[in-house]
Every structure is written in structure tokens, then in C-alpha cells.
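Question thread 4412

I'm putting together a teaching handout and wanted feedback from people who do this every day. The idea is simple: show students a protein as raw sequence, then show them the C-alpha cells that encode its fold, then repeat with a second protein so they can compare. Below is the first pair exactly as I plan to print it.
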Amino acid sequence: MHEEPTRALLHALLELSASLCVADVSERLAEAALRLAGASGAELVLDACDASAGLRVTTGDTRGEPSIQLELRARGASFGRLCVFSDTPLEDAARSALRTLAAHGEIALSNARAHEAALIRADRDALTGLANHGHVWEALEREASRAHRYGRALAFVMIDVDRFKAFNDRHGHLAGDAALAQIATLVRERSRASDTAGRYGGDELALVLPETSAEGAIAVAEKIRDAAQARTLGATGGSLTVSAGVACAPTDGKTAADLVRVADARLYRAKAAGGNRVIA
């Protein structure tokens, strides 16, 4: 080992506990493994889970078969592995240090994943799984500022379920919740990774569409409208339609408040005209 073993290991463990970012902890763990073993390379692989995407971190030369592979586990289940690659056989002291490092790495990574999952939940609407009202506003304000600064396109779409109160009265609020969640899924599936899909309030959903023209936003809204009209909602066997209002910067305004006001007014016009339509 390149450093005095005990001191090197303690330093590595302190580094692991100093962050709650999964990517950062992963990089520190791989680099610490490389140092502790005096190895040529190290690789950390995290499996995807409900709240976190998969991740692979490599440092040094990771060609060939690993000299040691340590499984990472939490609550009895495997969630990844730490592999160390060495041109020479690893000493027993190095293997022992790596096992201790991996054990603490399991705890650090589990804590970081739990922290990031909590941050995600704080920005999510519990029923629909979309961004909540506050997160939608933050995204719209950020993108409106960016669009104004760089002269880029930005669209905002407000979506409302037609005659949702009547649906709730007929089928009950549980059926209404399930129907709204299904429509939210349609919205999420038709948005890009760069978009923000959220629940604005009640049965109103919203889309923040950066780098999107009026024509592009209308096309997205129409796809959502078509999909909602064609969808049978759960055990009720019924269906719901949606209406949408579209506003675009800079034509309809430069601020988040401008875009919300215009999109909301157009949504109201769409519903007043009978619903199941998009107005832009």
C-alpha cells in the first residue's frame, strides 16, 4: 500500500462520510479503493433502483479481470459492486482494508441515496408523481429568465381535465384520483427529459417546455389531448377529455407570471368553448 494503512483507511472513511451526493460518494469510494490497494484501477457499479438511476464510476486502468470484487448490500439486497484491478497480487492487508472500505461505502451510499430520494419526494406531487406547484414555478421562472437572456424559445402549457367534478360525483373521489394519475402519466410520457411536467393544482397539470416553439407546444398538447380522449380510465370504463392553453415567450410575455396568465386565459377559453381542445 502506498500510504500507512491505518491512516490511509481512516482518511478514506472520513471522505466517504463528508458527502450526501451519490455521484460524489461513488467517486470517492473508487478513488479510495485505488489508493488503499496501490492498484492499477477501480470500478464502482451501482444498480438502478426506484429512486436512483444506475451509475458506473471508473478510475485508472480497469481492463481485464478484477483482482477483487466486493458486493455492496443494503437491507439484505445487493445494489452494486466495487471492483479493484491490480497488476500484482493484492496483499492480505490491502484486501482487509478494501473490505472495511466497502462496508463503510455501503452505509455512505445508502445514506446518500436516501437523501437524494427525499429531495426528489419534496419536489413531487404525491398523487401524480409529477413536479409539485412550487417546483413548476421554479422551473418556469428559471427558464423564462434564460429565454429572455439568450433569446431562446420557451412554451408553457396549462392542462385541465374537462368536467372532472362531474366525474368525481358519478364515480367517487378515489376513481377521480386514479383517473388524474393516469392522465398525469400521459403527460409525463409525452414530455422530454428537459421538460418539467407538474401538477399545478387540483385537476390542473402544467408543462414547462424549454427551447420549444408555439407549433411544437401545440403538437405536444394535442398528443396529450388525443391520448386522454382514447384512454379508458380504470374500472369505471369511462373516459375523460382535457383542454389546454399554450403561451410562448417572448410573444406572450417575458416572465413566468406573464406566461401563466396567458396560458390560463386560453385554457379558460378552451373549456368555455366546450372542452377537448387546445388554444394557443
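The second pair follows. I'd like the answer to focus on this one:
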Amino acid sequence: MTDLDAPSPLDSAVATRRGDDGTTGLLFGGERIAKDDLRTEAYGTIDEAVAALGLARAEVGRMDGGTELAVGDLGAIMLEIQRDLFVAAAELATQPAAWDRQVGGVSRVTASMVARLDSLLHATEASIVMPSEFVVPGETVVSAAIELARTIVRRAERRAVTLGADGLIPGPHLLPYLNRLADLLWVLARAAEQAEARTAPPSRPDRRRAAVTRSTP
């Protein structure tokens, strides 16, 4: 390649070019790791879940019947979860030598974050008609997007379990948080459907859907 063929440098606030060799940095500095490192895969999967929840939140305003659930505004709940997931990703993106620099609720998942999910889960379950078997996602746009986020969170959980087996998760609350969040998202998807007086079809075609009425906050 001649100088004429070489790409010209461009000023960018995003592209540092340091990752052109397939490596990436972790929080608080230290040695760079490969972009296909299991830690990168884990926090990158959480990033996917944040994006999927963003898709769901962007569609909330189009719901037929409003966004207010018995447990609060659905859009606000998802935004809070998105912000919490940044904390989970930060915990995974910190090298072991810097674990003592993590801050609860900022770069490490806390017990109170898990407790908040538990509270939301129980309250949401109590406010909806719970299906008696597996259901097929896709009844509404919002619920389908939430289900997509749920499956991505489950993948992040699987990656995190592997990291934990290697001693690469610093705190005790990240795995319970991801597990509880996936449960909550499934229930929120059902709540989103029922807020529009819809219900997901059962996984078996010989089963009838449960009748629901439009929920009110």
C-alpha cells in the first residue's frame, strides 16, 4: 500500500483506532483484552439487552390504552432497568486488580438493586392474569421487544455464570440480578399485553387463551 492508498486520519470523538487490532480496554485502565474475551462477550451481551429495552421503550408511547401499569409507568420502569444494566456491565468490565475501586450502584450491582426487582416482580404478578403455560411472544410490539430483551438477559446470565466459575465476577449480586431481571421482563411483557387488553397465544395450539380485560392502574 502506498501513501496515496492509505486511509487519511479523521478527527472523531468516538473512533480512537486503538481497537483496530481486535483489543479493547477495561474500566480503570490496565492491560487491554481481546474483543472476543469472555468478559467482553458478557458485558457486550448486556449492552444488547439495553438496546432491546430501548426499542421497547420507544414503542411504549404507541400502546393502545396507555403506559401506566399497576406498578408504575412502563417506560419509566424500563429506563430504570436500562440504567441498572449499565452498572452490571461496568462490574463485568472491570479488571480484577481494580475491583476494590468499584462503587455500589455505579460499577457494582448491589443487594438493593436485586430487592427492587423482587418488589417489582411480586407487585406485577399480583396485578395481572398469569398464564398457566408457556406462551408465544409477539402479541404486541412492546411485549415482543421486552421478550427479546429477556432472552438477551438470559444469554448475558449464561456468560456471567461461566465468568463466575473462573472467579471473574467481583460481587455476589450480579448473577441474582440477571436471573431476577429475566423473570421480571417476562412478567412485564404479559403486563404490557394486558394493558392493551391482549393476551399472548399459548405455546400449544389446542389450548385456549385466558380472557383478560384492560387493566387499570
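Top answer:
Good format. For the second protein you could add a caption like this: The longest strand covers residues 23-24. The domain at 33-195 is CATH 1.20.1200.10 (Hypothetical Protein Ta1238; Chain: A;).
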